[in-house]
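In response to a reviewer's request, we include the raw inputs and outputs for one of the modeled complexes. The two entities were modeled together in a single run.
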Amino acid sequence: MDPAPSGSQTIGPFFHFALTTDEALGCLAGPDAKGERIHLRCRVLDGDGAPVSDAMIELWQADSDGRYNHPEDPRQKSHDPAFRGFGRLATNDEGVSVFETIKPGRVAGLDGALQAPHINLSLFARGLLNRLVTRIYFAGDPANQEDTVLSLAPEDRRDTLLAHPDPQHTGVWRFEVHLCSEHETVFFDV
Amino acid sequence: MNAYKRPDPAGQPVLQHDRYRSTIRRAPSKPLIVLPHTLTERTGPLFNHDAMGETDHDLTRQHPGEPQGERIIVAGRVIDDNGRSVRHTLVEICQTNAAGRYLHAKDNHPAPLDPNFTGGGRAMTDENGCYRFVTIKPGAYPWRNHINAWRPAHIHFSLFGPAFVTRLITQMYFPGDPLIPLDPVLESIPDEKARQRLVSRFDLDLTEPEWALGYRFDIVLRGRGSTPFEE
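The model returned the following C-alpha cells for the whole complex.
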C-alpha cells in the first residue's frame, strides 16, 4: 500500500528566529529583473478585524514573461535569471508584509488559455492547522475577465482576490487577506 | 506529466477545531474552492545545497559553547506518496530549547533561555531523500489554550518538495510522551494512524555510542497520480 501524505500542523506563533531571519526574501526580483517593478503590501486580518501579527506569508510567481525557473515549465530555459519568484516574510505588528517584486506575465492555464497575471500566496500562522492558499490578481487587468481560476470563485467574493493600486503611492499595490469573516478571502484547496 | 493526487482528508487536520482555540477566529468559515493544478501549482521554489552553512543542520554547534539538554540525532527519509525519494529538497526545523522556551520576544514562559541555542536548522535531502539533524531534545511548555494546557515536546518541520502543491509544515513528536493524547493540535487530524505517523521512533541504529540518542522521522509529501493534467 502506498504511504499517505504526512498530516499538516500549525507553524505556531514562534517561528521567526528559524524561518524568517533572511529579510532578503522580501525581494523576489533582483536589480536586473525585467518588468514593471512593484511593491506588494499584504495585510492579514482575523475574524474580528484585528491584525494577524504572527503570520508568515510566502509568494510564488512567474517572471515578467510568465515563465518559471522550474523543470515543469517548458520555457524554463529562457526564464529571467535575475528573477527569483519566491518570497517569504513574517507579518509585522500591523499584520503587514511588504514585498518587492515585478508584475508577473501571463502563464499557460487549463485548456490552453492564458491565465491573467497572478501570484500564489501561502499563509501560515498560529490557529491555521494547514496553510491557507489564495491568489493575488491585479485589479483593472483586462485579462481578469477571461481567467478560468478567477471564474471558479463565487462572483460576489471574487474581488477578495484582487490587489488594488495605492492611490497615494505609485507602484504600490495593496492586498488584504481576511480570515474567517463576512468579507472572508477566497481560499483554495490545492 | 500527471496531476498531483489530493490527500485523504482523514489524514489532514480539520481547519476549524474548536478545542484549539486559535482556530476559531482564524480558520476559514466558508468552503475552500478546489483549484485545478495549473503551471503555477506544478512549479515551486527549488533550493540549492550551496546555500547551506556548515552548521545549519547541527543546532548544537551554532554558538561558541554547547547548549544545555539532551543531545539527539533526528533523521529520516522524505518520500512522496508513491514511495519515491524526494531528492534535494529543503528541510527546515524550528524548536524550543531543552527547557521548553523559544528564542522569541513574545514567548513569556518563565523557563531559562540558553545562550548557546537558537533552535533553527536547515538541511537538504540527499539522493535518497534522507536528511539528518543534530539538536537538543526540546521541552514541553505551557500555553494558554485551556486550563493547565501543555504542548507535548515537538519540532516543527517545514518542507517544499518539487512543487507549490507539495509544500508542508508539520510537527514531529516524541514516542511515549504522556501529553500526546491530550494535545488539541495533534488531535485535529481525524485518523489515529495519521496522528501516529507524526510521532518519531527511537532508533538504536541512529543512536551514536557515548554521544546521542537517535530518533527517526520519515515524512511523506504528495506525489503524482495516474491521471494527466487537463490541458
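As requested, we also summarize the result in words. Chain B touches chain A through 78 residues (CB under 8 Å). The domain at 2-225 of chain B is CATH 2.60.130.10 (Protocatechuate 3,4-Dioxygenase, subunit A).
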